[in-house]
Write a structure and sequence with these properties.
The structure holds two protein chains of two kinds.
Chain A (H helix, E strand, L loop, with lengths): L2 H6 L12 E3 L2 E7 L10 E9 L5 E7 L6 E5 L5 E2 L8 E5 L2 E6 L2 E9 L8 E12 L4 E12 L10 H8 L4 E2 L6 E5 L2 E6 L11 E4 L12 E4 L4 E6 L10 E7 L7 E6 L2
Parallel strand pairs in A: 12-19
Antiparallel strand pairs in A: 1-2, 2-3, 3-9, 4-8, 5-10, 6-9, 7-8, 10-11, 13-14, 14-17, 15-18, 16-17, 18-19
Chain B lengths: L2 H14 L16 E4 L4 E3 L8 E5 L5 H8 L2 H10 L4 E6 L11 H10 L6 E4 L4 H6 L3 E2 L2 E4 L5 E5 L11 H4 L3 H10 L14 E2 L6
Parallel strand pairs in B: 3-4, 4-5
Antiparallel strand pairs in B: 1-2, 1-5, 3-7, 6-9, 7-8
The chains are: A mainly beta, B alpha+beta.
Chain lengths: 265, 203
């Protein structure tokens, strides 16, 4: 088929293949949502981790054993990197150990913001460290990735659609100011409210904060008078009452995953 | 619930999820009998009256590499065996799993890693690991002179694979052994162990 015919057909045709670096049992690559940056305007970036079948990587709360992925950015002067935002994990067991993380593919999100008045080509570098395990072994991965962006009009890149799709799996914060945490009969209960239009009915809950609730136990969601409660047995390693508790909710009647973030006084 | 069915349920739960629970400080340390890398028998009973440290190992695990590559664990082994502590390195990797080494090879590899433990033992069927609820490599236990578990948990407070984190970490294991040697109660007697899962036989 002629090249011109391909373009005419409007088929997606990417000139640049996804450049991934392999390490251990996974490969990682960077995706930018824009083809150029504008000074002072946030650049949406994705970190795509592709894990070999049979292996898994770990979430921010890895469960028992394991290690979350870390990202250390080296950016041009004045550029700022936001927090690494992880997609909703799945639960798995490594032997008897309960864990949270990923199989197959996971796309993390980070916001990178250039300073006002920046110009010229920006080289955005990141050092990633992760751990993949299976029932028999654990193998780390370490790569250095780089992405070059010219200054420009900030138009969408060819990967913008991939990034937009990935964002659907990144939990969004909900107003947690009226949430509360209490203990009852060995259970830790997070009581929270959600704004109208958000319905956690039938959703799965994942504890993003380690050592609050037992990683092996399902978190039970119940409607309450004021809103909702999420209950699970207290983690055996919890050192006194919880000081912070982040809870991710996904699926069921939720149009988009959410994260409730409670902080103790 | 009838008394015997309740006990049955508790025992059943313990057997089914053998590493899902943790031995509590103050519990009697489970007896064991294993062979060291020279094929000699090593038992808990024969350490009676001594402070014993059990250290779970898998030389291929990046968390273990952090503590051996830096010399951290060998230094601890040397320091405390010098204070009459019996330090036992335990390998519970099943055959075919990461970290498994037959007796002679385990001895040679341990020497290469600078291991200075009193004993290096093979727990290939995982019986000792499961009796103690050893979850990760590394995972440390301190047993006092009365045969009670005084510490169960992580080697230190920084659950990473980065060697640079050792210096600034709270050395839970040193604090625990020092307390036991001084006849004091251990602060932080139970902490969450970190590392790779112990590679018991896959189901």
């Amino acid at each position: 088929m002629k090249l011109s015919a391909l373009f005419a057909a409007g088929l997606p045709f990417s000139m640049t293949a996804f450049a991934a670096e392999k390490s251990g049992h996974a490969e990682a690559g960077l995706i930018a949502g824009v083809a150029s940056y504008q000074p002072g305007k946030t650049v949406p970036v994705g970190i795509k981790l592709k894990i070999e079948p049979g292996w898994h990587s770990y979430w921010v709360n890895p469960g028992v054993g394991g290690m979350p992925m870390s990202a250390k950015w080296t950016l041009p002067a004045g550029w700022k990197a936001g927090e690494l935002q992880a997609p909703v994990p799945k639960r798995f067991k490594t032997g008897d150990l309960p864990g949270f993380g990923y199989e197959g593919e996971a796309i993390y999100r980070v916001d990178l913001t250039p300073p006002a008045g920046s110009s010229g080509e920006a080289e955005l570098k990141v050092a990633l460290s992760w751990l993949t395990c299976n029932e028999s072994a654990c193998v780390p991965g370490d790569v250095e990735l780089s992405l070059k962006l010219p200054a420009g009009d900030g138009a969408a890149s060819k990967e913008a659609a991939v990034l937009a799709e990935a964002e659907k799996k990144i939990p969004k914060s909900v107003d947690s100011s009226s949430s509360a945490v209490f203990e009852k009969d060995g259970q830790v209960v997070l009581a929270f409210t959600v704004p109208g239009g958000i319905d956690p009915e039938g959703s799965q809950a994942f504890p993003a904060t380690a050592e609050v609730v037992d990683a092996a136990a399902p978190i039970v969601l119940k409607k309450s008078e004021q809103g909702w409660t999420a209950s699970a047995p207290k983690d055996e390693y919890a050192n006194g009452p919880a000081k912070a508790y982040d809870l991710v909710l996904s699926g069921g009647k939720l149009a988009h995953p959410v994260i409730v973030q409670w902080r103790g006084k | 619930m009838k008394q015997h069915t309740f006990l049955g349920a508790v025992l059943g739960a313990m057997i089914c999820s053998s590493t899902a629970w943790a031995i509590e400080p103050g519990d009697a340390a489970p007896a064991f009998s294993v062979k060291n890398t020279k094929g000699e028998e090593v038992t808990l009973a024969s350490q009676k009256g001594k402070v014993v440290v059990l250290e779970w190992v898998n030389y291929e695990c990046p968390f273990v590499k952090k503590h051996y590559g830096s010399g951290n664990i060998p230094k601890l082994q040397e320091k405390y065996t010098g204070k009459d502590v019996v330090w036992i390195t335990v390998n519970s990797s099943a055959e075919g799993q990461q970290g498994y080494l037959a007796a002679t090879e385990l001895g040679e590899r341990s020497k290469k890693e600078g291991n200075k433990a009193s004993q290096i033992v093979l727990d290939t069927d995982g019986a000792v690991g499961k009796a103690y609820g050893a979850k990760t490599t590394p995972h440390l236990f301190v047993i006092d002179k009365e045969g009670k578990v005084a510490y169960n948990g992580a080697i230190d407070s920084k659950d990473t694979t980065d060697v640079k984190d050792i210096e600034s970490a709270d050395s839970y294991i040193s604090n625990a052994i020092d307390a036991v040697l001084a006849g004091k109660t251990v602060d932080n007697a139970k902490t969450k162990p970190y590392g790779c899962g112990v590679k018991y036989a896959s189901k």
